[in-house]
Amino acid sequence: MYTTMLMLFAACGSGNTSGLDWLIEPMDLGSYAKGTGYTFDSPQSTWFAGEHALPELRWTVPPSNIPIYLWEDVLSGENVWDAGSCPYVTLEGNKTTWSANCRSQEGYDWSGSVSVTETNDTYRAELWEFDIEVSSDREGRIFEQVRMEGTVHYVTGDNNPLARHAQANIKIEAPGYWEGAFDDALDAAWTDLKMTGTWESQLKNDQEFWQIDAAVDLGSAGGFTAFTEQLWVETDCAGEPRGEALLAGTNEARLSFEGAATCNGCAQLWLDGERAPNACQD
After folding, report:
1. Degrees (nearest 5) of the Cα angle 94, 33, 186?
2. For the segment 97-150, what is each residue's pLDDT rounded down to a tens digit?
C-alpha cells in the first residue's frame, strides 16, 4: 500500500491530480503555493504541517476553508465591520459582493472586495473570490491585519456518494492574529500562508473518506505537498481519522492514523522511510 501511494504521490502533489477519482472535476485556479522547503524534523513539526493539509486534525473541514472562516467568523463581526456600509454589499443574480474602501466605526480600515457566487444545479456550490485587506491601528484591536487573495470552490454533496468537495488557491497574510493564543508557530505560519489543491470526501458503505492532493506553504518555514487516497472520518474519535497520508518537502513523512482503534490523538510516523516516534496533538 505504501509503495503504491508513494508512486502516485510522486506523480501528483500540488495540483496534478492524476491517480485520484474526483467526482467534481478540479478547476484551474492557478498555483500560489510552491510546496517546497519544509523540513519534517520532528513528530511535532510533522503534525503541525498535517493540520494545515488534512481535515479531521485541527479542523473538521478541509483547511481550504480557512479564508471562509476568517471572513464569516472574524471580519464579518459587528466589532470589525459596519454591516451594509463598510463594506457595502451588492447583489447581482446569484452573486453577492462586498466592496470597501473605508474605515469602519470600530476603527478598521477596509480595502478590496469579497464575492460569493452560489449555484444549485446538481449540487449546492459556492465560489468564493477574495481580494481583501482589513487592518487596524486602534488599541484593543482583535487583529493587526488580515489580507486574503485567491479563490475557494466549495461543494456540498448529497452523500451518494459525494459528501464534500473543496478546491482552493489562496494566500493569507494575518500577522499577529494568533498572538493572543500564545501560539508562535501558528502566528508565524499565518503571516504568509498559501494553499493550492483539492480536497474531496466521498461515502462508501455509509462511511466518509477524504482524498487529497494539495500544496501548502507555511510562511518562512517553507512548503510541502500532501497526498492521500483514503483518509477515513471517524465519527467516534474526534481529531483522529483513519488511514495514511504522505507529506513531502525537503524530506518525506508518512502518517498512519488508526482512528477509533486507538483514539489517542496520534499517528504512527515514518521520516524518509525510517520509523520515528509517533506524531501527536499538542
Report:
1. 95
2. 999 999 999 999 999 999 999 999 999 999 999 999 999 999 889 899 999 999
**Structural domain span for residue 215:** 2-280
Handedness of CA 84, 87, 91, 95 (dihedral sign): negative
How many domains, in total, are found in the chain? 1
Residues 6+ apart with CB under 8 A from 270: 253, 254, 256, 276
> 144: which 3 cell numbers?
493587526
Residue 91 β-bridge partners: 96
| Global pTM value | 0.91
Short-list 251, 247, 216, 252, CA closest to 34: 216
Residue-wise pLDDT for 164-175, tens only, equals 999 999 999 998
Would strands 162-173 and 274-280 be described as parallel, antiparallel, or unpaired? unpaired
Mean pLDDT of 143-167: 97
Tell me the CA distances in angstroms from 221 to 45, 66, 111, 162, 245, one per residue in order.
Answer: 10, 19, 29, 34, 20
DSSP notation for 149-170 = EEEEEEEE--SSSEEEEEEEEE
Q: Collect all residues with Cβ–Cβ distance below 8 Å to 254 and sequence separation of at least 6.
A: 2, 244, 245, 246, 247, 269, 270
What number of residues does the chain have? 282
